Amino acid sequence: MKAKIAVFPGSFDPITIGHVDIVKRALPLFDKIIVAIGINSQKKSLYSLKHRMDCLNLVFKDMPEVETDFYEGLTINYCKQKSASYILRGIRSASDFEYEKTIAHLNNAMDEEVETILILSKPELSSISSTIVREIIKGKGEVSKFVPKEVLTSLYDFEV
Amino acid sequence: MKAKIAVFPGSFDPITIGHVDIVKRALPLFDKIIVAIGINSQKKSLYSLKHRMDCLNLVFKDMPEVETDFYEGLTINYCKQKSASYILRGIRSASDFEYEKTIAHLNNAMDEEVETILILSKPELSSISSTIVREIIKGKGEVSKFVPKEVLTSLYDFEV
Amino acid sequence: MKAKIAVFPGSFDPITIGHVDIVKRALPLFDKIIVAIGINSQKKSLYSLKHRMDCLNLVFKDMPEVETDFYEGLTINYCKQKSASYILRGIRSASDFEYEKTIAHLNNAMDEEVETILILSKPELSSISSTIVREIIKGKGEVSKFVPKEVLTSLYDFEV
Amino acid sequence: MKAKIAVFPGSFDPITIGHVDIVKRALPLFDKIIVAIGINSQKKSLYSLKHRMDCLNLVFKDMPEVETDFYEGLTINYCKQKSASYILRGIRSASDFEYEKTIAHLNNAMDEEVETILILSKPELSSISSTIVREIIKGKGEVSKFVPKEVLTSLYDFEV
Amino acid sequence: MKAKIAVFPGSFDPITIGHVDIVKRALPLFDKIIVAIGINSQKKSLYSLKHRMDCLNLVFKDMPEVETDFYEGLTINYCKQKSASYILRGIRSASDFEYEKTIAHLNNAMDEEVETILILSKPELSSISSTIVREIIKGKGEVSKFVPKEVLTSLYDFEV
Amino acid sequence: MKAKIAVFPGSFDPITIGHVDIVKRALPLFDKIIVAIGINSQKKSLYSLKHRMDCLNLVFKDMPEVETDFYEGLTINYCKQKSASYILRGIRSASDFEYEKTIAHLNNAMDEEVETILILSKPELSSISSTIVREIIKGKGEVSKFVPKEVLTSLYDFEV
Lengths: 160, 160, 160, 160, 160, 160
Prior knowledge:
6 copies of one chain form a homohexamer.
Chain A: E1 5-10, H1 17-26, E2 32-39, H2 49-59, E3 66-72, H3 75-81, E4 86-91, H4 94-110, E5 115-120, H5 130-138, H6 152-159
Parallel strand pairs in A: 1-2, 1-4, 2-3, 4-5
């Protein structure tokens, strides 16, 4: 039987407890989940690729079925390269949904073999996003409720 | 390792090619999918429970990993009774999404062990629903593009 | 050159100034608009078919390019019977849109020759619907701002 | 200075902890909040008016600024009768929003003096609605997380 | 009794008649409304902070309960500094709603004491936004219907 | 009788088969459709204006009722200059709808003579947008299913 591999793509700028929750809940469904940073040379990130990879490695170090990685180009091509038949995505709101639908339909048009699996954010996590966390950090606010404790200090270090 | 069992609940009044597509695409993820008619005594169906079960049995007769069934009461209780850890749902639109979110959050509040997995309808199937098929049948229209060929004749027989 | 005929379908229970505005604005685009009551034997209307047809006739009596009618069965079949290549619809909100999209896609799947044309309600009319007008009338409220003046009295007559 | 009175209208069939949370959070803004059951003779309720009023009275008995009541006809007329300048509503989702917008705009068209004030449900309460609670009760499920503890027993008593 | 103070935050680039309408309608609810420009060093504004403050001062000069101000950092921190227990926001559409929900939930997670109060734009004002006004001004169009007359000339002066 | 002229505005960066489908389906309704590139000096395009005009000319060269052009400033002003009474737009999703509604209402506020006509994308084309096509091209993916064959090669030439 073919291994069930899912790619969980994102910019993870920075990773939030919302991301971690999706990975944990999806884990029993797959043999391996690859949490992968998609590099977008046109979008400026707050944290460096190195910093974001360090955070992923810290957060998932005790979950052997989770691999961390980064890639350039299309997610669908990266999936094929990693023999992943699934793309895993969390959704929080109707506007997330419209976006995911467009991306999933296009991935499907390019390669029918890769299936997108959507998991709903828990209600209490549905307002957390990397965008929001970045805004709070820039405004010197408190984000300890929104990011994994392993990476909390490093996020502020960066700001200094 | 625990078997991965998903319940795919619905009224299937009648089953459409949209339902069949979701089951086929989700099948590689699970060891078994139970396609189950939820009986709602307060909602009048166009087709009898017997007729709908016959349709399900016809449509899925060559897929050994698919089981068909019906149940009364809450879906979440039925899942526990069948040792199913997943509820499978297809979504077509943003309004479907709002509905699924509410149901999934409530199921989660009642039992954290059962996870809802959402799969997007393919674009060309995204306008097909049992409601629409019923309207066309009542208007004596042509539904052969929207329902599995195994059940097509029986749907009109019923109407006579 | 083929005449450009559009069907403007609805239950018109009762007709509102929102309906009239859509017809007036669309009129320059078409040679004829048929304002047609779709009869739905399963949905109970507040006003009788006769009453609703009388209202349509009163409201459009001075617009020679507007025809009034009623029909049973599918709108798409009625269009073919009337040689109409267009279905005209007004939309007010995102939820209207989702509904119209589903109907338009299905009509298209059944007959590629009939095209749905959408026109946006004006902002000040976007909260008016037959449903809302019925609720106000049942609650003995004032609807003179929401329905054509030609039919206003008859709507309350009905209620007595 | 004129007293700030708000009407919080609903069917409260049954009241949920979501309703109670909105009232508590809005209370500091107003001098009085009237929690009022709108009687809709065309919509069948699960609980009797008497039962629903008893629940409201129990739940709000220790909040002197909260009055309970019921009314027939339009909410806007009831507001005028009670000298209330505000309608208070909780919103949970984008589809709630579309509904509230329509109602608020119409109330405004009928009486410019009455203003609708919207308060967002807390994330963890955003999946709770009377509709959902009724479904769970009919399915013999557990609703203690969703309704005020003062009324919990009576909801099941009713079911027997 | 504690004074009821609300902050009405925005970029006001430029202020529109939609903003003014929200403030006027909300005024009876509060003892003071602080219309406050949030400075976002990463988002380039069309008008300078000085110009925007001058506009606010002109527009609200005859409303003694309205204060104008600007702030850096998080809105929630600014509220605490001003002893404001409320954030006031106008909403026009379902997509506005999703945005406001996310922000309100996060503000709530950071400080339970500050409540967000939403008021719906009037239908005829629901298409007006600062973004749209800026586009029209850049395109040399006419915006006198969309901005307060006190500031109209200065907006074009700026453009020259 | 006045000629029925519609402007189909966009950035066409690049043109997709979704755009072409809308023009073809709308053509029987109008005497002329002007496919016009709106120049936005503040938004950087992937393809030059020259390249985009060349593509439009190639794609529509065999449709005599289609004119191609470009313009600066407001679409509504361009319509008046071309004696066009209609703006034609395709819509794919609820979020497209909210955007089109805002623009249409504003155009209407500026000039009541120009009417916006909306046509729904076909389901199988509803995930195609210029934005998505650009992303795929940047990621070196395959876009032959999404753009007219006449322009396909030139899009990749550009990339080199």
